Amino acid sequence: MGAIFVAGHGGLVGSAIVRRLQSAGFGDRLLLRTRAELDLMDATAVRVFFERERPSQVYLAAAKVGGILANDTFPADFIRENLLIETSVIHAAHLAKVDKLLFLGSSCIYPRMAPQPIPESALLTGALEPTNSAYAIAKIAGIELVRAYKKQHGMNAISVMPTNLYGPGDNFDLNSSHVLPALMRKFLEAKEHGLAEVSVWGSGSPRREFLHVDDLAEACVFLMDRYDGGEPINVGVGEDVSIRELAETIARAVGFEGRMVFDATKPDGTPRKLLDVSRLTQLGWRAKIALVDGIAATLEWYRAHR
Ligand code: GFB
Predict the structure, then answer these.
(1) pLDDT by residue (tens digit) across 192-235?
(2) In this predicted model, what pLDDT tens digit does every residue of 273-294 receive, in sequence order?
(3) Given a cut of 90, is residue 1 above it in pLDDT?
(4) Residues in Cβ contact with 94 at an 8 Å cutoff, skipping those fewer than 6 apart
(5) pLDDT tens-digit profile of 33-84?
(6) Residue 118 in 3-state DSSP?
(7) How many angstroms separate the CA atoms of 132 and 302, rounded?
(8) For residue 66, which atom of ligand 1 is closest to its CA?
């Protein structure tokens, strides 16, 4: 049994995969490198690392990620950094003959007006959501790399598409974060400072599906074992909520009793993003963490770590 390389182990997803592998008894096989130790955008450094360490499994959870405003403001960074990470890690994994690689994409790869819930077959059937098209195209390139290395080189690699994620270790910076940690921080600070209102971006009507990152990590370890298909596989909870409903749930968890003010100068993004998870359900895996429980646990983590 060789080493398991978790690329991006300092991030929301990578750290959850590490926790999951540790609790499954694979802690002694973990191979981890900080960004200072190994720059995943440096193809030569990554190749040398793979040649030396020869991991047997790779979880490619390293990525440049962010919320709607960060994606819309820094599209060049999002496309460039993600393309460099994907090409260098997937190529090095091929050269080092890893047993299996799991690539993590994102639900924003699907067309803006995809049918809901979104089946994997919706990929490349329509125009993308403009606020995150640079990131989405980088992630679509990752899926195509996986398909291409599989076809040309017989590489054993899979692509996993998670829906919007949250949980311990998330980014709570108000300019670059996703909606859930942003609202948690805003409501908490408003309560602590006795403020009467909190700003919620956009109209509140877009719908999103939220998956706790520990559920995603469990699904990734499950799929590493059980799925070898050439097509991507969605991971979600099968239900969505409006941003207004999400905000109300977080406000209740925090105990904020003031008003919400919707800021129409900020983008709504895609109107709805709910994944069709039947392919995964048929394999026998389901998400377990209910949104209210996941929010409570994340709030507890944030209070302890901010
Ligand atoms: O989570 P979020 O930034 O990403 O925003 P996306 C979701 C919705 O929440 C949007 C609204 O309609 C936002 O306008 N929202 C309300 C807020 N208040 C806030 C706030 O304070 N902060 C933030 N960030 N949003 C991202 C993509 O899209 O989703 C990425 O840009 C990635 O590429 C990620 O795929 C999963 O769901 O719109």
Answers:
(1) 999 999 999 999 999 999 999 999 999 999 999 999 999 999 99
(2) 999 999 999 999 999 999 999 9
(3) no
(4) 149, 153, 155
(5) 999 999 999 999 999 999 999 999 999 999 999 999 999 999 999 999 999 9
(6) strand
(7) 27
(8) 30
Nearest to 220 by CA among 205, 231, 238, 235: 235
Amino acid occupying residue 48: V
State which amino acid sits at residue 76.
A
Per-residue DSSP letter, 129: P
CB 222 within 8 A of CB 282: no
Residue 73 corresponds to which tokens in the numbers above? 């403001």
Q: Rounded distance, CA 69 to CA 263, Å?
A: 13
Rounded to whole angstroms, the Cα distance separating 19 from 22 reads 5
Q: Whose CA is nearest to atom 7 of ligand 1?
A: 179
What is the CB < 6 Å shell around ligand 1?
67-68, 71, 106, 108, 131-132, 135, 164, 177-179, 182-183, 200-202, 206, 208, 243, 266-269
What is the whole-number distance in angstroms between the Cα of residue 71 and the centre of ligand 1? 9
* The pairing of beta strand 207-208 with beta strand 241-242: antiparallel
Pairing mode of beta strands 259-263, 197-201:
parallel
Burial of 221 per CB tally in 10 Å (0-12, 13-18, 19+): buried
- DSSP notation for 10-30: TSHHHHHHHHHHHHTT-GGGE
**Ligand 1 centre from 178 Cα, in Å?**
5
Atom 10 of ligand 1, residue of closest alpha carbon? 268
- Tell me, yes or no, if 135 is annotated catalytic: yes
pTM of the model: 0.98
